[in-house]
Amino acid sequence: MSATTPSDMLSEINEVNLSYLLLAQRLLREDRPAGMFRMGLSEQLADALTRLTAAQTARLAASSQLLCRFRFDEHAILSALAEKGKAAQIHAAMLMAGQGVEQVG
To answer: Alphabetically, which GO biological process terms does the record hold (predicted)?
Structure first.
């Protein structure tokens, strides 16, 4: 197995960022309320993401920082998401729905 270089890591972060941004934009275009809920976005952040041009999206994706993060900080949510079965998925969705949405700086 070869070692990962910093350049490789940055390239992977950029790919994740672009995928995340494009997914968020698609979800918001197809069903805004559901997209906001699934991505944990505020109205203000959803507006900003949907207004981005292709060039702005590409520049934002090129950041050296990951733009996405885990929406949950609680072990209970992570555990529920990792479990199999519909009941565990419902429990995780209920826990996540109780959390606040992201706010723009």
So the answer is: bacterial-type flagellum assembly; positive regulation of DNA-templated transcription; regulation of bacterial-type flagellum assembly
- List pLDDT tens digits, range 42-73: 999 999 999 999 999 999 999 999 998 776 66
Q: With beta carbons less than 8 A apart as the criterion, state whether 64 and 12 touch.
A: no
Name the pTM for this structure: 0.69
pLDDT more than 70, % of the chain:
65
Q: What is the C-alpha separation between 64 and 13, in angstroms, rounded?
A: 7
Residues 5 and 48 in one domain: yes
Domain range for 96 is 71-105
Which of helix, strand or coil describes residue 102?
A: strand
